[in-house]
Amino acid sequence: MGRARIQTAATPGQLTITGFLDEMARRAVIQNPMRPAVRLFLVVLALMGVGLVVQASALATTRSPEVFRAELVAQVAFRLAGIAVLVCAFRLGPAGVRPWLAHLAVLCLTALVLVYTPAGAQKNGANRWLDLGPLTFQPSELARIVLLLWVASRCVKLGPLVVDLRRGVAPMFAIVACFFFLVLLETDLGGAMLLLICALAVMWVGGARLLPIAAVAASIGGGAIVAAAAFVPYMRSRIAMFLGDVHNDQLADTALAMSQGGALGSGLTFGPSRNAGVPYLESDCVFGLVGEELGLVGMWLVLGLLIAFLWFALRLVLSVRDRYEALASFGLLVSVALQAMLHVQVVAGLAPPKGMTLPFISDGGTSLIVSSLAVGLALGAARRSQATETPCSPSNVTV
Known about the structure:
It is built from 15 helices and 3 strands. By secondary structure, it is mainly alpha-helical. It has one domain (about 40-395). Strands 1-2-3 form a 3-stranded antiparallel sheet, covered by helices on one side. Helix 3 runs antiparallel to helix 15 and helix 8 (about 190-205) runs antiparallel to helix 14 (about 325-345). It starts with a helix and ends in a 14-residue tail after the last helix. The model is unreliable at about 1-10 and about 390-399 (pLDDT under 50).
């Protein structure tokens, strides 16, 4: 049996997980990064279009005709603003933001503190918003983008020192921890974990050693989850809902909405759960609304677009020549993709309930604008790399 195993292991052409990932990465590399960039832009436009249709359907059955028209105009305006931000970020690129990263990081830290002042707006017991008169936004969304750009820049500046725990990883992680705990204290465990995972992923791809990063993630992230579950009633109840110890009408109604959609759904504006007033189906649980009104076909359409987003994002990152811009693009696109994955997992009951929007589809101006900013900056990296000759992956650069 042992001999058979040895022969099997030595069989030429055997496909392993590592080999599969290497082969996929090899096929993803392309000489002209603008080709996947254009396709990624089209995928984002398609997601925005699906989002507009879903939001219009939700508004049509829950608002008066006057309010419906006003809010539909707002939905269109947000998407046009998102496209404008995406185009501006495309022209700017990560390199255009790099000289201002230190100032932007300080500004974001200040904004994360201001949510606890009278300038902050509390909703559902959480301090996540800044109320600036006509504008209300979540600074944690923008802080994640700035932090990922800063981590990418820092990894490149450190060079060989990025593998050093004392002079490389530890100081960098101290800044990441400040952002993490400020977001966590808003009682936003999901947003804090998303920020931490994306920042650590950029550090790892940027050359930091895996073992110290894994230890830090396990100790800080795991410790935060345990402490939150033990001492924060809000988060403890969320974990209890996920484990099935506590019944939650929102989760049950969202699951029911998905299940009763069938193959083709009940049709736009005919979703019984939305019409019955189930809350957050247009935002934190929008994938459930897609399943109810567009059915399995609609859910596969959205999942297909998200898979296409991942594939073209991979091709773009692996084809960007500049190391900083490749690292920055990796972090920015991973943050959008991971947020989408977490949203789908929460709605499907595969993760603890968390108020996390589905990028480009859910209701919420801050999420749409920030996601557009992240993708636009990554597309800008592709534009700057178009003229160079040799593609370079951030994962195979020696430091």
